[in-house]
């Protein structure tokens, strides 16, 4: 086991809101399995190297640290049954949530992005890119995907914000938002079953699979809720961080202006380079395992620093430099294996579209404050910036 006397407080403090903490590189070099203590006072092991982090994502000996019943290790019948239900849900959803379908949404996403940029320009500079573009766009897209009326977009944004912020709202506020969204989605699913449209939810209402059967009513309601929470706040914050990272060094933005064809690889590099991906992925070790030469006992909580893994010198050439043409780019931002992010195709389409629209409409875009003045959003599970002030 790592040195129990040398316990590090986690998370670390980075020099700026868009740069990585120095501890990641130090730990990758000398202590890839580090003993840390979280703000909640929990002891855990922190993994910072690419191969080790990828293992925790793909190896079944590492499970989510929220077991649903079973024994203390979360490997009893209740946990295994929940895991089987989750995999069935993913199989049914994946049949409709294809990259081709997400790409077909691009014209609508482009239209939304232009409308939001129009509004931002009309209000004048400086503007907060996160509030004006990053926050509304993904929720509008999710609403379109689910067939939710445009008049309900603001309600969806309200619910999403309360789900993923662990300090700004009370437990009662979070619970109430969950109840409100669940009730809304129940009524919405019933309406889609009675009068299907051409949206994803209408398609899922009619999905029947020879092996897996049909999605149940609770599964359909959960699907709508999960798509909102996972698909809104994460992309909303990523849009702001993407702009901040690209504008932090003017030559990055100028290179994209000179060669817009780099947008797809630039988006992948932004996803790799992002140092603000949230607190870290929790996993519980179900049996004794060796990680980077260290024996880890069953029952240990492991934290995976994905942004550190994405900067591992063993995998990426010059990982501390943003290479907008980097290819291949096997970053782990969307996970890996059977638990990789279902919405990654949609997120990629949104990020590419937003970046292309910004380059076209606002070539003179720049940060309105110094990079050192950008502030991280506290208490947000997925990471983010409080504001991204820009001018043009």
TrEMBL record:
A single MF term (Gene Ontology): iron ion binding
SUPFAM superfamilies: Cytochrome P450
Similarity annotation: Belongs to the cytochrome P450 family.
GO BP terms, alphabetized: antibiotic biosynthetic process
A Pfam family of this chain: p450
Keywords, ordered alphabetically: Heme, Iron, Metal-binding, Monooxygenase, Oxidoreductase
Keyword Transcription in record: no
Reported cofactor(s): heme
Annotated protein name in UniProt: Cytochrome P450
Keyword Nucleotide-binding in annotation: no
PANTHER family assigned: CYTOCHROME P450 BJ-1, P450, PUTATIVE (EUROFUNG)-RELATED
